[in-house]
Design goal:
Largest sheet: none
Number of strands: 0
Structural class: mainly alpha
Distance between the termini: 17 Å
Radius of gyration: 13 Å
Number of helices: 2
Helix content: over 70%
Strand content: under 5%
Number of domains: 1
């Protein structure tokens, strides 16, 4: 089954990362901070998925 939540997070992260690369944004910008938040959410989601299957 497709994991739509994960796909949505990854799509948002990819879009933000492209914007940051094009604009050359520094690490302390809201966009880069959101990328860090998305990374944390993806890790938490992956841990929940692995925990539920075990």
């Amino acid at each position: 089954m497709a994991d739509l939540y994960r796909k949505a997070l990854e799509a948002e992260r990819k879009s933000l990362w492209a914007t940051c690369r094009l604009k050359g944004l520094a690490k302390d910008t809201p966009e880069r901070q959101r990328i860090a938040e998305l990374d944390a959410l993806l890790r938490e989601h992956e841990a929940k998925q692995k925990g539920g299957k075990g």
